[in-house]
Amino acid sequence: MVLPNILVTGTPGTGKSELCQQLTKTLGFQWQNVSEIVSVNKFVEEYDEEFECPVLDEDRLLDYLEPLMKKGGCVVEYHSSDFFPERWFAAVFVVRCSTALLYDRLQAREYNDRKIKSNMECEIFQIPLDEAKDAYRKDIVFELQSDTKQDLEANVERVRDWLEQWKALLNKS
């Protein structure tokens, strides 16, 4: 049975990469780290000096991902979600984190003050969650809290449970 594709999104520093690493190890998904793909393949339109980050060339990225998504079994990780086609994903998991922890995580990454402030505001105002809810059917969007190692383990279990339900529905069809 081919695995479905899932999207893991959320503010930088919330724990998306850790979750994707675990899903790759425990459930057999192929991790598509969009930031890494963009960097390796130079899918960049320009560089944003203010936020010290590249500006994504979405069209080139989507063209690159399309054949991978057709195969299934991908867990796509990125901090933004609304430009990915809904047809690609059976589920969208939005990773959240308490702002006190997030602040420390972003400082540890040596983000500048403006970038930290912007990312903190994204989390406070739940922009990634709202973006996902606006871009995808509400019944495929799930919120995951990721403050502790126990949260990470619970999130892997939640995705595993979702996957089992998905398989059961598929078998009924």
TrEMBL record:
Which of this chain's residues are annotated to bind ATP? 13, 15-17, 109
Task: Report the enzyme's class at the first EC level.
Answer: transferase
- One GO term describing the cellular component: nucleus
Has UniProt tagged this entry with the keyword Kinase? yes
Q: According to its UniProt record, where is this protein located?
A: Cytoplasm; Nucleus
The answer to whether the entry has keyword Oxidoreductase is no
Q: Where is this region: LID?
A: 108-118
**Mainly resides where?**
cytoplasm
One GO molecular function term of this record is: ATP hydrolysis activity
Q: Name one GO biological process term.
A: ribosomal small subunit biogenesis
EC number assigned by the record:
2.7.4.3
Which sequence ranges form a coiled-coil region, renumbered to this chain? none
Q: Specify the domain of life of the species encoding this protein.
A: Eukaryota
Listed InterPro entries? Adenyl_kinase_AK6, P-loop_NTPase
Reactions this protein catalyses: ATP + H2O = ADP + phosphate + H(+); AMP + ATP = 2 ADP
Record key words, sorted? ATP-binding, Cytoplasm, Kinase, Nucleotide-binding, Nucleus, Ribosome biogenesis, rRNA processing, Transferase
Segments for region (NMPbind): 33-56
Relate the protein's function as given in its record.
Broad-specificity nucleoside monophosphate (NMP) kinase that catalyzes the reversible transfer of the terminal phosphate group between nucleoside triphosphates and monophosphates. Has also ATPase activity. Involved in the late cytoplasmic maturation steps of the 40S ribosomal particles, specifically 18S rRNA maturation. While NMP activity is not required for ribosome maturation, ATPase activity is. Associates transiently with small ribosomal subunit protein uS11. ATP hydrolysis breaks the interaction with uS11.
Q: Which family does it belong to?
A: Belongs to the adenylate kinase family. AK6 subfamily.
What the entry lists under PANTHER family is as follows:
ADENYLATE KINASE ISOENZYME 6, POS9-ACTIVATING FACTOR FAP7-RELATED
Subunit structure, briefly?
Answer: Monomer and homodimer. Interacts with small ribosomal subunit protein uS11. Not a structural component of 43S pre-ribosomes, but transiently interacts with them by binding to uS11.
Q: What is this protein called?
A: Adenylate kinase isoenzyme 6 homolog
Show the taxonomic lineage. Answer: Eukaryota, Metazoa, Ecdysozoa, Arthropoda, Hexapoda
